[in-house]
Specification:
With 275 residues, this protein is mainly beta. Helices cover 8% and strands 59% of the residues. It has one domain (2-274): Beta Barrel (Porin), CATH 2.40.160. The chain contains 1 helix and 16 strands.
Length: 275
């Protein structure tokens, strides 16, 4: 009897571990989650992003590499290449390199379920200035602080996050105004699968952005700042240590100050490989 209880307990432990490992591979598409890598693990991700505001169109290709310092702490770098077009004018070049880190400070596991929370820091450098392309040069280094929560089960997922972006004063003397980003995400796995099988999770995100007015020498600039909200359906497909996620942001609310071009849409696709 004692042996049977031990085997049953071991089976539950192994099942919990497999379920937790499957859940850990997921994060939102446009928001952020508390997911971190295992110790000494590597994640390479190729990202394609596009967005359109009236006659302005921006596209970016990026390589993101993440390393697990511990089972709760990861660091990484984001290397983008950007394309921008406004009317008949176009430009392209290396974008701003970003350095980031995430630390998971809380985690609770149960059978088929994991809840966790993490803090994150991202520094967006001003390296695009080297291109000597005004359209790509924001003229300052920015910093993003964030907090993320995740509930990851065998069937249902939910995430919530808040990020505050400290935008610096650029070389023209313009204080670009800070931004707040809010994300609420739900996910559904229609058919629970094993680790070795292909797995699909459908996502629906609500993403909000609030920007303060920029100012020059203490005078607020009228055509800056404001609020936008997006509803963002997406899909997350994984097979073992490889994943594809894709989604589109559909604007549902605008309240921008002055005369600004509202967002038409944004889209993103990511290919991830865990090593």
């Amino acid at each position: 009897m004692m042996k049977g209880m031990m085997l049953k307990g071991l089976g539950i432990t192994l099942l919990t571990g497999l379920m937790s490992n499957a859940a850990l591979a997921h994060d939102p598409i446009f928001g952020v989650g508390p997911h971190v890598l295992f110790k000494n693990g590597f994640e390479a991700a190729a990202e394609i992003e596009t967005k359109k505001n009236d006659d302005e169109k921006e596209q970016a290709l990026a390589l993101e590499v993440t390393y697990g310092l511990t089972g709760d702490w990861a660091v990484g770098v984001d290397l983008p290449y950007e394309f921008r077009k406004e009317g008949s004018d176009s430009s392209s070049g290396n974008g701003d390199v970003s350095l980031f880190t995430k630390y998971r400070f809380w985690r609770r596991d149960s059978l088929g379920l994991q809840e966790s929370a993490a803090v994150l820091l991202k520094v967006v450098t001003d390296t695009a200035a080297r291109n000597k392309t005004p359209a790509l040069d924001k003229g300052t280094t920015d910093t993003i602080l964030g907090l993320a929560y995740g509930y990851e089960g065998r069937k249902w997922y939910r995430w919530a996050s808040v990020r505050y972006r400290f935008n610096g004063k650029n070389t023209a003397g313009v204080d670009r105004g800070d931004r707040i980003l809010l994300d609420f995400v739900g996910g559904l796995r229609p058919t629970p699968t094993g680790y070795l099988e292909p797995d699909t999770v459908w996502l629906l995100e609500l993403n909000g952005e609030y920007g303060q007015r920029a100012n020059l020498n203490g005078v607020a600039l009228s055509n800056t700042g404001g609020t936008e909200w997006f509803v963002s359906p997406g899909i997350f497909w994984t097979k073992r240590n490889f994943a594809i996620k894709a989604g589109v942001q559909i604007p549902v609310y605008h309240k921008l100050n002055g005369i600004q071009k509202e967002s038409d849409y944004r889209a993103k696709m990511v290919f991830e490989w865990h090593l």
